[in-house]
Known about the structure:
The chain has 274 residues and is of the alpha/beta class. The chain is built from ten helices and 14 strands. The chain has helices at residues 27-38, 58-61, 90-102, 125-132, 144-147, 160-174, 197-208, 225-230, 242-245, 259-268, and strands spanning 9-13, 42-46, 67-69, 74-76, 82-85, 106-110, 115-117, 137-138, 152-156, 178-184, 187-192, 215-219, 233-236, 250-251. Helix 1 (27-38) runs parallel beside helix 10 and helix 3 (90-102) packs antiparallel against helix 6.
Amino acid sequence: MRRFSPIRLLLADVDGTLVTQDKVLTAAARQAAARLRAAHVILAITSGRPPRGMSMLVKPLELEAPIAGFNGGVLVDPDLSVLETHALAPDVARQAMSVILAAGLDAWLYTAEAWMIRASNAPHVAREAWTVKFDPVVTPEFQDADLDLAIKIVGVSDDLAKVAACERRIQRALGKSASAARSQPYYLDVTSAVANKGEVVHALSRRLGIPPECIATIGDMPNDTLMFHAGGFSIAMGNASDEVKTHADAVADSNEMEGFAMAVDQFILPRAAA
C-alpha cells in the first residue's frame, strides 16, 4: 500500500472545484478553509483565470499563500503584487493563435494587463466577464504588439470535440515550447511551458519551503492532472471525467455536492501534518 507524507499545503483549482457551476463560493467551502487553517494546513489556489479574476476569493478564504493565475503564468501575493511572470515566447504565441483560428475556434488573448477578444457577443464572453468581474477589450484583429505580450491564449468553442481535437493538434505543433490543455471542456488554454499547474506545485514548494510530497492537490480538468503528478496526494472532483480520475489518488463528490468540503474533511485533515 502506498504511504503518503503528512500534508502541509492544499493547492486547489477554482472553477469546477472550489466554486459551484454558478461560480459561487459556498458557506461549506469557506468553513472547510477555516478548518484547514485551524489544522495549520495552508490553502493556495490556482486557475486559468487572471489573478484579479480570483481577488474576490482572498478575503472569504483568508488566503495568505501566493496565488497562481493563468495556470501559473503569473504568480502574485494575495494583494495582487506580482512575484513571477512567465509569458509566451512571441513566435510561440503567433503559432498558437494561427492553429486555434485555423481549427475554427474563437480566440482570446491575455496580457498581464488586459483580456482581449475579437467580438463582444462571442460565446462565453459575457459569462467570463461576470465570473472574473472585469470587462475585456474588444479588438477585431490581434496586433503583433499584443502577441508579443501574451501570457495566455485561449481557444473557445461550444463544439467540444473540436476543442479536444485542437488540443491534440496544438500539442503536436508546439511540443515542449508551450503548455496546452483544456481548463474547461470549451476552453483550450495555451501558456508558457513553465506556466502549468505542475510547475505551480514546485513554485509554491520553493517559496514556502514545503516539500512537494507534502502538497495535496485537488481539481477536475485535464490541466489539473499535471499538479496531481507533481504533488504528494491528489484528489479529483466527482464532476471530473473518468480519464482525469484515473490520475488521482482519491475522488471527492462533485462541486455541486460540496465536494471541496468533503475532500478537506475526508482526505486532507486526516493526513494533516501534526
